[in-house]
Amino acid sequence: MSKLENNGAILTVADLHAWYGESKALHGMNFHVKPGELVTLLGRNGAGKTTALRSIMGLVRRKSGAIRFADEELSHRPAEFIARRGIAYCPEERGIFASLSVGENLELPPVIATGGMPIDEIFALFPNLKRRWSSQGTKLSGGEQQMLAIARILRTGAKFLLLDEPTEGLAPVIVQQIAAVIQRLKEQGYTLLMVEQNFRFAAKLADRYCVVEHGRVVETFRRDELDAATHKIEVYLGV
Ligand SMILES: Nc1ncnc2c1ncn2[C@@H]1O[C@H](COP(=O)(O)OP(=O)(O)OP(=O)(O)O)[C@@H](O)[C@H]1O
């Protein structure tokens, strides 16, 4: 499929099914993301949002369906290949190496493309990381760990970011800082696919919202449809 089909999507997920052993987690998921967009996957616990991100990143072993990124089919490719195409994944558990310093954590992932964010821009975006450069991963607050996890994927040069619940467990003031960072990334032309339970956080940032239920996208809303759809979304989320 050409990049310009499907409304000019850069990522198209079509009829995606995924399993953990015999247990099925995705039941024919369909959605797309256009270049420069921020799309949020919303839904209750266990709906399949994380599995969707992990499938795109090549981290779910058993799956079927299509995952097309910039004209290329990725569904049968390993994670290293997908990373080299410019997709990066920031998992919910953040994956900070406890025994390494902030600096060592930042320098760990391979640079996969030119245009990785230079360290001075990282510091401008995340001033805390400069102050904490020599601190061990274990000494960081939850917010600092999240900042480091995002900063680390920016270093790689990836321009398509998968963020899994970036605000989980964080204080409101830190949530605001993360929102500001994500807004800046959008302005810089990054494309983002984000899983988020915090609807109020996502509502300010996302261009479109895909509601996930039982391993499928059951409805999609644009930002300008949000006011009219808020009640419906709250029912979907059970809030
Ligand atoms: N490693 C795993 N092994 C077996 N089943 C899993 C595994 N990870 C997830 N599942 C199951 O797959 C389904 C989808 O889970 P997933 O984590 O994708 O949902 P989610 O929408 O991201 O929810 P959450 O916010 O709870 O992470 C759930 O039924 C979950 O129990």
From TrEMBL:
Keyword Nucleotide-binding: yes
Residue stretches making up the ABC transporter domain: 11-239
Entry annotated with the keyword Nucleotide-binding: yes
Keywords attached to this entry: Amino-acid transport, ATP-binding, Nucleotide-binding, Transport
One example GO MF annotation: ATP binding
Family to which the UniProt record says this protein belongs: Belongs to the ABC transporter superfamily.
PANTHER family: HIGH-AFFINITY BRANCHED-CHAIN AMINO ACID TRANSPORT ATP-BINDING PROTEIN LIVF
Name this polypeptide is given: ABC transporter ATP-binding protein
